[in-house]
Structures are given as C-alpha cells and as structure tokens.
Write the structure tokens for this entry.
Amino acid sequence: MKTFSRLNRLPQYVFASVNQIKMDARHAGEDIVDLGMGNPDLGTPQHIIDKLTQAA
C-alpha cells in the first residue's frame, strides 16, 4: 500500500486523545462517568424540548 507523508502531519484524532485521558483517569482509580455515547430508548422529555424551544 502506498503511504503519504502528509498523513503523518495530521493531528491525533481528538476522540483518541479524550479516550486516552479517560483511560488514564480510570487506571488512576478515578470514577469516570462517560456520557460521550449512547443510544437513547426514550424520547426527549417535554420540559427539555420546551426550554430548548424557548432558548432558540
């Protein structure tokens, strides 16, 4: 496979950096609650929709 030197100059993927920080904190004994990903199975509560509509 052909490689391109320009690719080596790209910064590290930001989520790879964040994941490393989280893993380091876990290994240090920190209690980490990861809200970064999820698949909600319920609709957004109406009071949140109302506030977002009001703010917009």
User: Anything to note?
Assistant: Residues 14-27 form the longest helix (14 residues). Residues 13 and 19 are 10 Å apart (CA to CA).
